[in-house]
Amino acid sequence: MDMNGEMIKMMKRKWFKVSLMTFGILFLPLIGYLFYFCVWDSSTAFLLSEAELKRENFLQDKQAIVYFSTTVPQNAFNDGLSYAVFVDDQGRAKSWKMDGLELGSMAAHSNQVFVEEKEKVRLVGNRYQVFPMKDKQFTGERTGYLEKGHFFYSIYNSGFDERGGYRSDVRWGNDKGFQTGTIPYYIRSSGEDGEHFYILTMDFTKDNKCYLKEINIINQKVEIKSLTEWRQSENSAFLSSILADEHYFYVVLYGEESDFHVQLLQINKQNYQMERYTLVKYPPNENDDTLTNLLPLGRESLHLYNRELYYVDGFGDIYTFNPLSKKVQKKFSLLDYKPTGGSNDEQLYFHNQYMYIFRFNPSTGQYVIEKYNLLNGKREAVREVTGIKEIMAEVSRRKKFAPVYDFKMLKDF
Amino acid sequence: MKKWILCGLSSLVVWGMHSPSYAASPEIYPYVKEIVAMQPGSSQEEVIADARQVAEIEQIDVEEVLKQMQQELAADVKKGEEEMKRKLHSGSDGRRPLPTSEKGNVFYTDAYSSGVNHGHVGVYYTNKNIVESTSGVGVREIEAKSVKVYKGAVIQSVKTSEGKRRAAADWAKSRVGKDGYSYNFANNRRTSHYGNKNCSKLVWSSFILQADLDVDKDKGSGVYPRDIRDSSLTVTVKTIQ
To answer: Which pTM was predicted?
Structure first.
């Protein structure tokens, strides 16, 4: 009986060991794999915690903001990624990690930054607040601050509604709360002048009609006013946001004459009379990268300063248009810049006579912010930004890529 | 008496387990968990419901449908893994914008979710705008220059007349505002052309309805993005470098 008892004990021990080994062989690699891909984040040291974001003086030493996101097809199983990057005075970046929001962006106003996210919006700075939103968004269009209404806003390419109409949802608000509404069109280009939003839409089923509309938020409702309409080639597309001065709207387009012909469309605000002016005619070549290199360097590629329009193309060339003389000239070219085949590894930010470029410089292997003076074309400063490569390495490790979709300076350097 | 009650209850349980039409539990079917694991986003119940629908139409066993779905899905995942090893994408390989192309042309790009390269396709409905079906949104339109793809993505022309390519593009565009997204790749050839669909189903339906062309390479239960890219009816006109 004792012998049997010993044997049973030994068998049990052996069984336990075998079970443990089997578990180890079968499940530990699986657990390790799941941990590696789903839990562990190698970029943790460069990520912001919510406690940091909540700090009242969080923005005090911040100089620039950048938004990266994976694209929608990479979000098939809800595993997309976005990063709101805050760069400090020393060029050190730390990122707030979020769910994927293709073409996402941020806005800044009066020591406050508005961060749009898939299911919420966040105010950082003066007073930290998070506002959950009832509808998820997957693709951004623009964000900003409307001076007249004293609110931040964001517009999205949302898809469609239950009745089959197109939906471009709008979120707007401030520290008192956020509202949502819908613009029932697919937006081709948009802009604002501090008082109103403007959108350009096209209807390919109605003789390729193009429409300019003014959007207002009145009594917590989105109101849409049609300003003018015209016919435009189905092969045309807009390359810039809509800009406005006291007399005209401006937007850059191509494809109206040919895909290599980039034009400025000027619309009179009083009578809606239109003129198209040639900005650049590229040598036509279907087989090289001209068609992708000519795409503008960033989403905000058009700037108005001191009665002169500035347009930056993907070759790194800066063109000016004078609305009075109608004269176009190639003003200057970016230094140490090689066209990236439209990779859009760059974004632009304009402030008065200065243009800032956030980009990855392949020759130095650095992310940098460069400052150009638009008046003389001089590059006045270059600042390396650290802490982004580590974030991108993490994105790559997850077999994804995250283009830079937005960049804004919070203060000068 | 207790024995009789227990026996009766046991019989009910056993009977329930062996009557697929009444059982709701996905565990009774083989392959379901594997299908869902390879196709995250879909639920076991959805997979079974789809398989049952197909089984009823084609007068075959639900298990047989599930087996076909699992085998094709596994083959596609394996193909994606093999391509992933060969290409070894880095983060900087992404970010290429889709260039302009002709209306009716299709594009294919690698696309990774949950570590799986499932690929992605869409169709040009003008030379600068595309229609695609994406999760969360469904069938949507977007400007080609806003769509970022991997290096090595291809633009392809379908071997048919220009008129039919344009008609296919118009049909795809007509689904914007109507069709949501479906995670069901595994038997999407057998579901309706109208209603929720994924990216490859959108392109496949466009050409089968408007050009009478089956642009699915292997014509199995499901049409996957790579099936369209590798079809003998699609020819690459541009590779994005």
So the answer is: 0.83
